Amino acid sequence: MLRVITENKLELSCTTPIVFRLLPRLEPQQQIQDLHYEVVGAERHEQVQDGAGNRLIRALMQKGLSSVTIRFEGIECDRGSPLGSFVPIEALPTEVLPYLAPSRYCESDEFNSQTRSIVEGKASGLEQVEAICGMIAEQYDYCPGSSHQLLSAASVNQRREGVCRDFAHLSIAMCRSLSLPTRYVVGYLAGLIPQDQHAWIEVFLGGQWQAFDPTPGVEDAERIRVAIGRDAADVAMMDQFGPLPLSSRMQISVEV
To answer: Is this model's pTM higher than 0.85 or not?
Structure first.
């Protein structure tokens, strides 16, 4: 079981609409209990759900100091053994199709030849995904603080270093170039140092979404999903619609 506390403290120069993505998803893959959240300094706020099933807090935050605090306990259900079968495009569910196309940070149309050389001789599906994630873990460096929010998969491929967000984008672009539907997942992972939200991927294989983590040096551990999307642009922890905050501080605690 993971015990998670997330606190986001802000100082705003004016009243600002903000969407927070900090609440865990409610789904069969995980059990969430003792969930509490508190919004301080808002004229009004509400909890809603987007089209992907992500739970949002929509708030109109007041000028000055404000905060959002989330507390919960979560258990990841058994993921089981990964299934390896490639699903033909014509057999994919309609809701899966958007995860085949290039997106803002995942230029999958630029990776066709490189990816095919990486997976040469591998069976379509699981073997290809494992080859891609294994290559990233071996040939790229995990460097905290080396990234920024404008880096895309193509840029990471040239830099050969990054953080979890970058390696998720790179593996998504490569998998999509092989017609493997792949989506971006953000959540909490046990044992991260320093503790932060973590990003990984899910690939549609054998008729279901299956998790893979391409970040070098990160051991598999219990994790809780917060949001899914095409890439990081869909699942930012906070989207503010107005001037940038005068200050913003996020503190995350994850205990087993």
So the answer is: yes
